[in-house]
Amino acid sequence: MPRPIRAVAAAAGAVAAAALLTGCTKPTPKISVLGGGKVVTITPSTYCFDSQHCRPTTTLDLPTLTVAADDKVLIDVPRDVVSRGWQAQALSLDGKQQLGSSGPINDSHSYRVPSGVANGGAFIVQVDELERGTPDGSKWSFLVKVSLTKT
User: In the chain, fewer beta carbons within 10 Å around the N or the C end?
Assistant: First the structure.
């Protein structure tokens, strides 16, 4: 085999091997959140590819948005999350009390959470991916701070 052909074959083999390795490390979907004129991209705190394969993250810092008291927070999820179904919940700061919920969503990639669900206080929004209508363990969470003035 001539040298140029060998070099091309070796390069093609390297690209194929890299593609196989990339296929083994599935990317986790990120969601976009808009509030107070700011867009934040959020990585999942836990993401499950199936019941046997979940990836938790080690960071517990929640991304934060500050919104006006009469504003809404727009959550936008990727198509692969929509196709399985998802839900958004507003939770108290300790995560123990549900302040509001979207219910299951499987026909839209976005949902708006009103900033007043905690009566003017800060709250956590948790987005869960669903499998057959129940949370599969995949979660995205962020903190919403409510400002009394327009942001």
Answer: N
Rounded distance between C-alpha atoms, residue 132 and residue 62, angstroms? 28
The residue with greater pLDDT, 45 or 12, is 45
The pLDDT tens digits for 95-139 are 899 999 999 999 999 999 999 999 999 999 999 999 989 999 999
- Residues 39/32, Cβ–Cβ less than 8 Å: yes
User: Residue 5 is inside which H or E element, if any?
Assistant: helix 3-24
What span, in angstroms and rounded, lies between the C-alpha atoms of 7 and 118? 63
DSSP type of residue 36: T
Interacting residues of 9 by C-beta distance below 8 A, sequence separation 6+:
1
**Domain holding 80: CATH number?**
2.60.40.10
Answer whether residue 92 is part of any domain: yes
State phi, psi for 6 to the nearest 5 degrees.
Answer: -60, -40
**Number of domain units in the chain:** 1
Is residue 72 domain-resident? yes
Q: What is the pLDDT of residues 62-75, one digit of tens each?
A: 899 999 999 999 99
